[in-house]
Amino acid sequence: MFEVVFLGTSASAPSIHRGLAAQAVLAGDQRFLIDCGEGTQRQILRSGIGYKRLNNILLTHAHLDHILGLGGLISTFAHWESLDELNIWGGKATLDRVSALLYGVVLDYERLPIKIQMYDLKPGVFFENKDFTVTAFPVTHRGPGNFGFCFQQKTHRPFLVEKAEALGVPAGPERGQLVKGESVTLPDGTRVTPDMVLGEAVRGAKLVHIGDIGRLDTVREIVRAADMLVIEATFLQPDVDAARAFGHITAHEAAALARDSGVHTLLLTHVSRRYRERDIVEEARAVFPNTHVVRDLEHYIMRRGQAPEKKLEEAHEDE
């Protein structure tokens, strides 16, 4: 199961209702913070998720509206939190800027009591455990080293308890071996293979997160069949020329990508205060009806084999 908490959904500058870019992805016992715009640490507290185990930070690119909040967040970690290690992933240009911020300003006169590891992202899987993988993929925006992220839950074959009981497989380590794909031999000599007690494979949930992006042809394959796509909608289609000039896309284009790639649910973020929210919704839903413009502190849940759903409903007036 993946959960996404939207901490900041504004583009470039905050508005009254929207903070700067940041999202938290909760996956089992792992937590990932994607981007960290100014004000993120307060949004973490307001969201209720807190700082505990929030030690994996994924950065889409080097622009200040996506990284400037790291200074305050890590200063708080240094003084108040008990994290042993902080892992930061990003492209080289992003990490260079983050290093200048952290070691040239924030940590200049203090000793940080935690270990900070910075990882120069390359395309491919960079995080994996028994349940899911996280893949980085390059995207086109202004400047080098921009990345999107794909969270993919691993394929699962459910254990069929009734079949196991009929075959005489006792509850215990034998069942664990079968789940791992290993055959077992029972005390009476019966050999039981995984195929005898495991059901059909069920594909895991797929979450694709894309920050700022200026062209979509390079990401279509990785977006294909995503259960949930999170992507920017900085401009509306009448301003497509301005979108290109600044390395962004329109809500219409994001919706067309979702439609053509077999996405289930489209969540639009990085919203500019130049537009009304309802106009963004109208443009996108005309192309792809299952579109939502997310707001700060909204919380979405993705479960294997189920449609993504919103956990919390916040009452806001239209901007």
How would you characterize the largest beta sheet?
8 strands, mixed
* Residues in β-strands, percent: 15-25%
Strand order of the largest sheet: 6-5-4-3-2-1-16-17
- Tally of individual domains: 2
User: What is the CATH first-level class name of the largest domain?
Assistant: Alpha Beta
Based on the coordinates given, report the CATH architecture of the largest domain.
4-Layer Sandwich
Distance between the termini: 32 Å
Q: Quick one: how many beta strands?
A: 17
* Order of secondary-structure elements: EEEHEHHEHEEEEHHEEHEHEHHEHEEE
**What is CATH's topology name of the largest domain?**
Metallo-beta-lactamase, Chain A
Mean pLDDT rating? 91
- The CATH superfamily label of the largest domain reads Ribonuclease Z/Hydroxyacylglutathione hydrolase-like
What is the alpha-carbon Rg in Å? 22 Å
Total of DSSP H or I helical runs spanning 4+ residues: 11
Description of the molecule:
With 319 residues, this protein is an alpha/beta fold. The protein has two domains: 2-156 and 201-310, Ribonuclease Z/Hydroxyacylglutathione hydrolase-like (Metallo-beta-lactamase, Chain A), CATH 3.60.15; 161-197, no CATH class. The protein is 27% helix and 25% strand. It contains eleven helices and 17 strands. An eight-stranded mixed sheet has the order 6-5-4-3-2-1-16-17. Strand 10 (184-185) and strand 11 (191-192) form a beta hairpin. The longest helix has 15 residues, at 92-106. It is globular. It starts with a strand and ends in a 9-residue tail after the last strand. Residues 314-319 have low confidence and may be disordered.
